[in-house]
Structure formats: C-alpha cells, structure tokens
Amino acid sequence: MKRAAEHRFEEIVPDANMSAFLRSMCEDYNALTETIDQTSKVHFPPNAQKRLRRFTASEASELIGVSTRYLGMIADEIELETERDGRNARSYSLSDMNTLRNALAEKAGYDTPKGIGYMPRRRDGDPMRVVALSNFKGGSAKSTTAIHLAQHLALRGYRVLLLDLDPQGSASAMFGVPPEKTDDDATSYAFLRSEDPRPISEVALKTYFEGLDLVPGGGAFHIGSSMRRVYRSRRNITKGSF
C-alpha cells in the first residue's frame, strides 16, 4: 500500500518578546505534538501494514452469488491457486474472488444481466455513483458508516473511492493513514483547494481492500472554510480521471 506523504511537526521556539499566555500556548503545542508523535509510532509504525483476512468457501460463494461447489469448479477450470487448510478446505482472498467474478462474468456474458450480477463494476458509458454521508453533529457514526459501506461494496466486487472530507480523518486512520502524520498536499484538501489543485488520481491511495482506494482527510479541510469546496468536489472527482 502506497503511503501518503508524511507531515512532520516542527517545534515552536518561544520568542523572548512573547507574552506569558503565548509562551504557554507554545509549550502546550510542543507537548501535544510530541505526544501525538509518540502515539503514532506505537499504533502506526513505519513498516506496519493492514491485511484483509481470507474467506471460507461458504463466505466467498455467498458474496459472489453461486454455490460452494460451483465456485470450486470454476476455480479448478481457470486453474486458480488457492490456499487450503489442514482439512483441504479452500479459502479465498478478495483478489481470488474478483478473479472468479471476472471468470463467471465472461462465462455468462460480461454485459448480460447475469454477467453484471457477477461483476457489478461500471461498464463503458455508465455514470459514476456518488454516496455522501454527512451530519454536522459529531459522534453520529459518519466515518464508521462510510468505512463499512465502502468495504461492503468492495467485497461485492465494486470499485470504490472513499473520499475522506473530515478534518479529524477518522476513516483515513482506520485504513492506516494517520491524519496527523499526513501532509496537507496528500489529502482531500489538495484537489479541492482553489489554488493549484492536484488531480484526484495523484492523491488517491490503494488500501488493503482490493478495489477500494482512499483519498485521506486531514486538518487543512475545515468546515469553516469556503463552502464552494464542497460544491466543487463532485466536479473535481469526475475530472480526476480516477
């Protein structure tokens, strides 16, 4: 998984002419950033990488929409190498399941209703679907809902772009991208800003869920900023040739 550009906190050295209040603020800032840095090193070590578990044959068949027996037959037919446990039972990765979906779609006819059911990704000319989860109240499960919905759709075979517009970046952190360690130029702010916006394709990161990419959130994107960023977001997403 490609990592976002890392943001490095710089210590603020109090100026001799600062008031006692400002000096106290600098000391608090330095103490807080040091705590964040140490916490991040524990929970997000440099070489840490999340991994998606494997799925049993019954789980995979339910997600794809075929019987366990037929799934095994297709796996043998395309010579898909899968892991087996001590009882010789197959298990499948999400990549394995998408390979099987593609084989089933080709067998049924890629653009037929049955083929689309197996591999539900957009065909040429299909519009992009946008689902927005928003609530001005904090703690209302916005990030949790967005993460679970994105992961569920990826497990069902869709290509998903999760766009984190939360300054707290909770969804990004759940995917192993801590917002306090991510440079502003590598977040959603980078392609929504008015001056020198980056293409969304340059900001999006692969996650440990195949087919699910992430544009990280971060502190630079504040609700108090110009609301035109929100109105421009759909246009910029579409223009990003993602």
Structure notes:
This protein is mainly alpha-helical and 242 residues long. It is 42% helix and 7% strand. It is built from ten helices and six strands, in the order αβααββαααβαααββα. A three-stranded antiparallel sheet has the order 1-3-2. A three-stranded mixed sheet has the order 4-6-5. The chain is elongated. It starts with 19 loop residues before the first helix and ends with a helix. The model is unreliable at 223-231 (pLDDT under 50).
Radius of gyration using CA atoms only: 22 Å
> Any low-confidence stretches, pLDDT <50, length ≥5?
223-231
What is the count of β-strands? 6
How do the helices and strands follow one another from N- to C-terminus?
Answer: HEHHEEHHHEHHHEEH
Strand order of the largest sheet: 1-3-2
Rounded mean pLDDT is 83
The helix count comes to 10
Principal-axis shape equals elongated
What distance lies between the first and last C-alpha atoms, to the nearest angstrom? 17 Å
Helical residue percent band: 40-55%
Percentage of residues in DSSP E strands: 5-15%
The major pleated sheet works out as: 3 strands, antiparallel
Structural class: mainly alpha
